[in-house]
Amino acid sequence: MDVPLHEQIAAELRRQIALDELPVGTALPSEAQLCQQWNGSRAPVRQALATLRADGLIGGGRGKPPVVRRKSLSQPFDSFLSFSRWAEGLGHTPDQHTAEIALRPATPDIADALGIDEGDHVVQLVRLRLLNGQPTMVERSTFTEGYGRKLLDFDCDSGSIYDRLISEGLQVGIARHVIDAIGADETDANLLDIAVGIPLLRERRLASTLDGVPFEYSDDRYRSDIVTFAIDNQPRSQPVLLRAWHPLHHTEDDLALMSRPAPVVVGK
Length: 268
Hints:
Elements: H1 5-18, H2 31-38, H3 42-54, E1 58-59, E2 67-68, E3 73-76, H4 83-89, E4 94-105, H5 108-114, E5 121-131, E6 134-144, H6 145-152, H7 161-167, E7 172-183, H8 186-192, E8 199-209, E9 214-223, E10 227-230, E11 264-265
Parallel strand pairs: 3-10
Antiparallel strand pairs: 1-2, 4-5, 5-6, 6-9, 7-8, 7-11, 8-9
């Protein structure tokens, strides 16, 4: 299927912004210039620019070419499960480097999150995720043994783990996401090429099958200068995520958040 022209234009402009070919503060080409460049009418050009405005990447206008406002990429929550699919959808090139994959006994906190017994085997994976060759996120995923073993003979550097598991019969049902901030530890710093202690956006996810059985607990840490998060709300509809305030020095296990109701539906 041919990609609509407005999507091609938006993807190319996103690429130029991400690679600083159009730095923050720079004016985009005019509508007339874009029409000439893409041999198209103003309608797809304006639709592409409207998409970038909705993403928060550009602003201004009013008779003048819009200006690049930021280069970070908003990641909608409904695409959290596949970093590769999300990146490709924005016209970027995803990549990954596996730092570790191992079969080991579940620790108490992992066992509690996944609803298994302490000491049961799980498969743990640490990967560096990249956008256009730039280190972007450190992914720490723990899978229950049944699904995790399907990854032991898979080249995890070759693409999306979720696509692999789905092809092996996984039916994704619901997931709960908890978002907070954390300072980069030594592993994060080494993989992301940043200093220890630099603030990162952390997304912890508990994903379950269509039958409601947990199969993955993840701790993903994003460079906040590259990726931001977005929530879409509609009148008279439940938000995708609920916001909650928690004391800075709480004593209860953060994983208790995972047991609350109103899961996010991701298996559409």
